[in-house]
Design a protein that fits this description.
This protein has 19 helices and 16 strands. It is α/β, with parallel strands linked by helices and 648 residues long. The strands form 4 sheets. The chain has a 6-stranded mixed beta sheet, with helices on both faces. It has a 4-stranded antiparallel beta sheet with strand order 2-1-3-4. Strand 13, helix 17 and strand 14 form a beta-alpha-beta unit.
């Protein structure tokens, strides 16, 4: 399906805006992310928080032990010359218990957070994929596949690191800071005030550097998606690139994108990496100042001197405080070190939530499709068993009258534009009676594919109405509407799996016999039998081990097994050679029996037997009639058929 030009233009605009350093509500994103993490995991988080608190308290407790050991044991022993080490050994063993508790609790909360991160990422991926299946086709037409894929790879990777590493480290650091600060106040309020001055300097630096790096991290995540999309597009188009010798041209384009990514990544990491050295040096300066001031106070205490208003302290106290001072800087350094990862992850989370929050495809239909049969009174009734008769059922009524699906399609005064300000189809009126073959002919961009997109509600019309067996298609559930329509596109899409599984994709409940019959109907059985394992042959990526014609035959067989009352053939034989086309055409003729068929073809030889041919130009039907009628009119179709005018 060719993407309409209006959508391409919109897509380009969206991409440009998307990567222009968007503003992100960091607090709101973090709050939402925490809600996602905590949902269903509150008990685990309570255990993790409890372990972090124990680990932090154990770390602080070990520092306080230094004061006790020096003041209550070592200093008295030095003064008295005592050699009784029993009590000292006991207190040292108690310190070992504290250190062991810190190690065990740290291991436990780290292990739990790794498990929690994996389960959360799994939940997020499931949510993204589930929502993606319900997004309108417009979203995929206006966003590169590589950019969408980046949500599942780059964005989730940085989010996983945040949950498993950065988040527990940040929580542990904050708790440690509170515990250490409290212990410092207990030991010396004056030295604590001195430390607090350095803390203010650290917070100021953190705020300034954080603002700088955050914006660049947001841009970096967006450009990674853009880069992935460009690479994916170039990989898919390698043959075309080499045919036209565009290697150097696309390399220059990639260099521009890569340069943009390099610049934003450099700026983001430059400011993020400044955190650690700056905080470390401020911490070292604080350590030196506290040691000097504390040392002076300790010397005054040794010499039985004092300073007015300031109580002197023991050697044990200053030793413990210096140890706490170092422990106070360490979590601050950890926070600054993790700042870059957090900002990067929040940028990824914002992109993920943006995908999750995309407006889903609206489906306000009330009619569903059910299996039906005729009873003895020749009335159409619903039945559970599989039949070849389908009927529309109004779910809003208790005893609805079933309407048989015949394939009567009518357009009444339909106007449509991918961009509301630019109509692609203008006042389209047409009808296709059950069993008729309707062909659309016209230049690229005339609106042929757009009409078929509207029949299965890939897009909703601006004005007018489309009726399916007398029912406005807006009143039919989209899934049920699409069950009634089989599409064979110009571009085939096969999936990893066996040949049989790919054919059965059209009807997952189809028996093996139905799969074989569908393949025979599409004239695909002959080449399938020659494959190494026949119908059980595994297909490589998108059927890479098959020819283009063989892939198209499987696509036709997949539609045949669905057995829909309406078929859309969008240049279905354009990729098949003349010999294969003649085989396919025979199968298609059999497949089209008793079905309403819409055909889009550049080869006019494939539409000559149509019940009606419609010639479109600039979104308007300018001619309609049978092949003979249009030849006699000597209009645009005649010019196309005789070669006086060529399709573009």
């Amino acid at each position: 399906m060719n993407t309409p030009q209006s959508i391409k233009n919109t897509s380009q605009t969206n991409k440009t805006n998307h990567f222009s350093r968007p503003k992100v509500n960091t607090k709101q994103t973090l709050k939402r992310l925490l809600n996602v993490i905590s949902h269903g995991n509150k008990f685990v988080l309570i255990v993790v928080l409890f372990c972090i608190i124990l680990s932090s308290l154990a770390s602080v407790g070990s520092s306080l032990f230094i004061k006790t050991i020096i003041d209550n044991y070592i200093t008295p022993m030095l003064n008295t010359g005592s050699r009784e080490f029993g009590e000292l050994v006991k207190i040292i063993l108690l310190m070992v218990v504290f250190f062991s508790a810190e190690i065990i609790t740290t291991y436990l909360y780290t292990f739990l957070m790794v498990k929690l991160s994996q389960s959360t990422i799994k939940k997020i991926r499931n949510k993204m994929f589930k929502n993606m299946q319900r997004l309108p086709i417009r979203y995929f037409d206006t966003n590169t596949h590589g950019n969408i894929m980046s949500h599942y790879t780059n964005d989730t990777d940085v989010l996983e690191l945040l949950i498993s590493q950065s988040l527990p480290n940040i929580i542990s650091s904050f708790i440690t800071i509170v515990a250490v600060f409290s212990a410092m106040i207990y030991l010396s309020i004056y030295l604590t005030l001195l430390t607090f001055l350095f803390l203010l300097v650290m917070l100021f630096v953190t705020k300034k550097l954080g603002q700088k790096s955050r914006n660049y991290f947001i841009s970096q995540q967006g450009i990674i998606g853009k880069t992935t999309g460009y690479i994916e597009e170039m990989i898919n188009g390698q043959k075309v690139i080499k045919v036209f010798n565009h290697e150097e041209a696309i390399k220059k384009d990639f260099d521009k994108i890569n340069e943009e990514l390099c610049y934003n990544s450099t700026q983001a990491n430059k400011y993020a990496n400044l955190f650690m050295p700056i905080m470390t040096n401020i911490g070292n300066l604080q350590y030196v100042v506290v040691a000097i001031v504390g040392g002076i106070l300790a010397l005054l205490n040794v010499n039985n001197l004092s300073i007015v208003g300031i109580s002197v302290m023991s050697i044990g106290t200053i030793s413990g405080f210096i140890q706490l001072s170092k422990a106070f800087v360490r979590p601050l350094s950890t926070i600054s070190q993790q700042a870059g990862s957090i900002l990067n992850a929040l940028a990824g989370a914002e992109r993920i939530f943006k995908l999750i929050d995309q407006p889903l495809e609206i489906d306000d239909g009330k009619y569903i499709v059910v299996n039906a049969k005729y009873n003895k009174k020749n009335h159409l009734v619903e039945c559970e068993e599989k039949t070849n008769i389908f009927a529309f059922k109004d779910t809003t009524k208790k005893r609805p009258q079933l309407i048989r699906v015949l394939g009567d399609v009518r357009f009444k005064n339909v106007n449509f534009g991918y961009n509301p300000n630019k109509l692609v189809l203008k006042d389209i009126n047409l009808y296709a009676k059950p069993g008729q073959k309707v062909a659309f002919v016209g230049a690229t961009g005339a609106g042929k594919t757009t009409i078929t997109n509207l029949i299965n509600r890939f897009y909703d019309i601006n004005e007018g109405e489309i009726l399916f067996d007398g029912i406005n298609i807006k009143e039919i559930k989209k899934d049920d509407l699409r069950k009634c329509i089989g599409i064979v596109l110009q571009d085939t899409n096969l999936f990893t799996g066996t040949v049989k599984e790919n054919i059965r994709y059209g009807n997952l409940e189809a028996t093996d016999e139905e799969v074989y019959n569908a393949a025979k109907l599409a004239n695909a059985d002959e080449f399938i039998q020659l494959l190494p394992n026949g119908y059980d042959t595994m297909l490589e990526s998108d059927g890479a081990n098959l020819s283009q014609g063989q892939r198209q035959l499987l696509s036709i067989a997949r539609t045949a097994v669905a057995n829909p009352p309406i078929m859309i053939l969008d240049e279905a034989t354009s990729s098949i050679d003349t010999h294969t086309e003649s085989l396919v055409q025979k199968g298609m003729d059999a497949l089209m029996q008793n079905r309403t068929v819409f055909v889009i073809a550049h080869r006019l030889s494939t539409v000559q037997n149509s019940n009606v041919i419609m010639v479109l130009e600039n979104g308007v039907i300018i001619e309609r009639g049978t092949h003979e009628d249009l030849i006699n009119q000597k209009g645009k179709y005649f010019q196309l058929y005789t070669g006086k005018f060529e399709l573009e």
